[in-house]
Structure formats: structure tokens, C-alpha cells
Design a protein that fits this description.
Structural class: alpha+beta
CATH superfamily of one domain: Probable tRNA modification gtpase trme, domain 1
CATH architecture of one domain: 2-Layer Sandwich
Shape: globular
Number of strands: 19
Helix content: 10-25%
Number of helices: 8
Strand order of the largest sheet: 10-11-12-9-3-13
Largest sheet: 6 strands, mixed
Radius of gyration: 22 Å
CATH class of one domain: Alpha Beta
Strand content: 25-35%
Distance between the termini: 44 Å
CATH topology of one domain: Gyrase A, domain 2
Length: 398
């Protein structure tokens, strides 16, 4: 029996040869034009590498823009809802940016690489919109997605692995900090960031140095349980951490077809990113109106009874003994570490306050037979997984 070939019309990241050599499942998908692994050998074993040792994920397809120039800070500060003046060189900011109606276009991370030099990383591509938003400002915006290779190195032994790699000064790097070092003559940027809710780092390097970095990293991690992982394992971890994904947990405002399908930062639980002390930013007036008048939706994190994952499920409340549909689940998984059936969802206001109880309508199939359960769920206001090692500086020598 022949094994189907990966679609070679897709782009391949610089790390693809190493991932292909590890692959046993031939399960791939397209991430922004790049061939990306769903899983390489077993999604759950890859997930446990995140929580028990070190897991490595190829981040290269993430959209990356280099923003420089005399007005770069003014430009970025107007672009996003948080105060970027507080993000000094050597720091990373999680941020969201909105349209004029206060609806989230996307969220992502902004790396203040050096004075007046930034890298914006996002799920979606925004070059046309970013360029229009820069009219009248002295800035340069260059997409560098294909030029910069990136790896997420996540898990309790990640600090030990990178120390073994020879990265000096890593012990002093705080969460959302970044540092530059030399790797075989190429500049390697190391940031203490990630999408797993665990101790972890991200490595950024020019594409030509990608394979030597991979080989050195896996050689350094050989005694620390280092494993490569795909998107299925990463998705399980990010749901445990309560992190959102554009296109899954919300529809980017620029992609909506029907009114009412996009969300504001307040409706995504990102109100803490909105700083009204700033004089001006995209969507400020609409967000001020929403803060005064109230939101239409609320993001909820759900601890659900039972062990049937609530993918694509409706969320209900009970009023005087009757159920009423008030929302839907956007992401769900069984958490192997937390031993919980968890989900992220969106419900109409005023439902879903932290501590309240809702019901989730779950359909699942076993041996071609469909079953339906109404599982009780508790609304929680904290991540399901948030270990102290995530913030410890220096991290322990796991």
C-alpha cells in the first residue's frame, strides 16, 4: 500500500526536513501556506512532553512583521489597545488591535527588539491594513515570515535544555522578556514566551541557520526528554491555559460576513488590554461606548461534568425549570493533567458570570451511534493550568 504524499505545492519551513524524518502518521495541514504537522507520532504523547519534559513546535508559519522607523512607537501605540510606551526594549507585549467599531481584528505578540525596532506576530496576515494605518507616519513595515525561522521550546525541562545549548544569561530572563545571543555567527533571539501556559521559550533565527539550531537543540535535550510536537498537542495545552485562537474562538473583524459575528476585547475577556488613559487608538470611541453601555457577549471558561469533550456544543441556562440556549463552545478538550473536561465558549450577556452554572449540550458518537447528554458546567475565572514554574525566575533545574 502506498503512503500518500504531502502536498508539495505548499511551502515548507526550514525545519521541515527534520519534522518529516520524525513523522509516523502522515497527518499534515496547511497553516498560512506552509505544510504543518497535526501530530508526528502520537498527539497525547506529544502533549505529555509539554507538561513533563520539553516539546518543540515549529512556529515559522506565524505571520511576522518588522516595524522600524522614527514613528514606530507612535504607530504601534495607536494601532493596539494597550499602552506600548510601557513596553521597553527587551520586552514582549501581548496585544489586540481593533477596527473603528472596536471589534478585534486579531491578537498577537509585539517584540520590542531594540529601541525603535519591533516585530509583530499574529495569526492572520495584515500587511495591507498595517500599511494603510501607517499613512502620514515615518515607519517601515516589512513582512519577514519566510525570513525568520522560529521554534517554541516548551515544558519544565526547557530551561535546562537551553542552558545545555550554551545560552548564557538565560537564568535572569523574566516572563515576556527577550535577549539576543550569537549562534554559529547568526543572531538568535530568545524570548520567554509561549502558547502552552507552562515554562517555555521561543527561538527566532534567520532561516539559513534553522537546521543547525534544530540539531544543536535536540542534541542538548537528548537527556531531558525533548520531543517534537504538532498542532493537536499544542491545542490541548493552550485550551488548558485559556488562550484564544483567531478563527476558532473569535472571527477576525476583517473576515466577518454577517453583522454580530465579530467580538470586542471586552467580549473576549481581554478588557485588561484596553487602556483608556491613552489619548487615541483604533476603536477607542466605540470601546468607551461599550464600557459605558455594556457588552453583548461574554467569554467563558467551563469545567464540565463527565469526560465527553464538548466540541461544537451549545451552551444553555435553566430558567424556572426550562433550558434556554445562550451560547456555544468554541474550543474543548479532555485535560489529561487536570483530569477535567474543559472548554472555552461565548455566551450572551448577562449569563456566564464566574461561579455560575450552565449546561452544555454534547453529542458524541461511538460505533456509529450518536448519543446526547446535557452536562452541567461551572464557569471559572482562572486558567485550568497555571504552574508556578511558569513565572519562576530563575526556573528550577527540572
Amino acid at each position: 500500500m502506498s503512503i500518500p504524499e504531502v502536498n508539495l505545492n505548499r511551502l515548507q519551513t526550514p525545519f521541515y526536513p527534520r519534522l518529516q524524518a520524525l513523522d509516523r502518521l502522515n497527518s499534515w495541514h496547511c497553516w498560512k501556506g506552509y505544510t504543518t504537522a497535526d501530530a508526528l507520532y502520537d498527539a497525547e504523547l506529544e502533549y505529555f512532553a509539554i507538561r513533563n519534559s520539553t516539546a518543540v513546535f515549529d512556529l515559522t508559519p506565524m505571520t511576522k512583521y518588522r516595524i522600524t522607523g522614527p514613528d514606530s512607537l507612535t504607530y504601534i501605540d495607536r494601532l493596539v489597545t494597550r499602552d506600548m510606551h510601557k513596553i521597553r526594549p527587551g520586552r514582549v507585549a501581548y496585544a489586540a488591535w481593533c477596527d473603528d467599531q472596536g471589534q478585534v481584528i486579531d491578537d498577537g505578540t509585539i517584540f520590542h527588539l531594540r529601541e525603535g525596532e519591533y516585530r509583530l506576530c499574529s495569526q492572520e496576515r495584515h500587511l495591507a491594513w498595517l500599511t494603510v494605518a501607517a499613512v502620514g507616519m515615518d515607519v517601515s513595515i516589512v513582512e519577514e515570515t519566510g525570513d525568520i525561522a522560529a521554534l517554541a521550546v516548551q515544558g519544565p525541562t526547557s530551561f535546562s535544555v537551553l542552558q545545555e545549548l550554551g545560552i548564557e544569561g538565560l537564568a535572569a530572563l523574566k516572563p515576556f522578556g527577550l535577549m539576543h545571543c550569537d549562534f554559529h555567527g547568526a543572531e538568535l533571539t530568545v524570548s520567554r514566551t509561549g502558547f502552552t501556559g507552562d515554562l517555555g521559550y521561543e527561538l527566532w533565527i534567520e532561516a539559513a541557520a534553522a537546521l543547525p539550531l534544530w540539531d544543536a537543540l535536540f542534541d542538548a535535550g537528548r537527556l531531558y526528554g525533548i520531543k517534537a510536537m504538532g498542532t493537536h498537542a499544542l491545542d490541548m495545552a493552550r485550551i488548558e491555559a485559556g488562550f484564544l485562537t483567531a478563527g476558532i474562538d473569535f472571527v477576525p473583524a476583517m473576515e466577518t460576513v454577517r453583522s454580530g459575528r465579530s467580538r470586542s476585547p471586552f467580549e473576549l475577556g481581554l478588557g485588561w488590554l484596553v487602556d483608556f488613559k491613552k489619548p487615541n487608538f483604533n476603536g477607542r470611541r466605540a470601546l468607551a461606548d461599550e464600557q459605558r453601555d455594556g457588552s453583548n457577549w461574554r467569554l467563558v471558561k467551563l469545567d464540565i461534568d463527565g469526560n465527553k469533550p464538548a466540541n461544537h456544543s451549545y451552551i444553555h441556562t435553566r430558567i424556572r425549570g426550562r433550558t434556554k440556549k445562550v451560547g456555544f463552545v468554541t474550543s474543548a478538550t479532555w485535560s489529561p493533567v487536570c483530569k477535567q473536561n474543559i472548554a472555552i465558549g461565548t455566551v450572551s450577556m448577562p449569563h456566564g458570570a464566574p461561579g455560575s452554572r450552565l449546561w452544555v449540550e454534547i453529542y458524541y458518537q461511538r460505533e456509529m451511534h450518536w448519543s446526547r447528554v446535557m452536562a452541567e458546567a461551572r464557569v471559572v475565572d482562572k486558567p485550568f493550568w497555571d504552574p508556578p514554574r511558569r513565572r519562576a525566575t530563575p526556573p528550577g533545574p527540572f
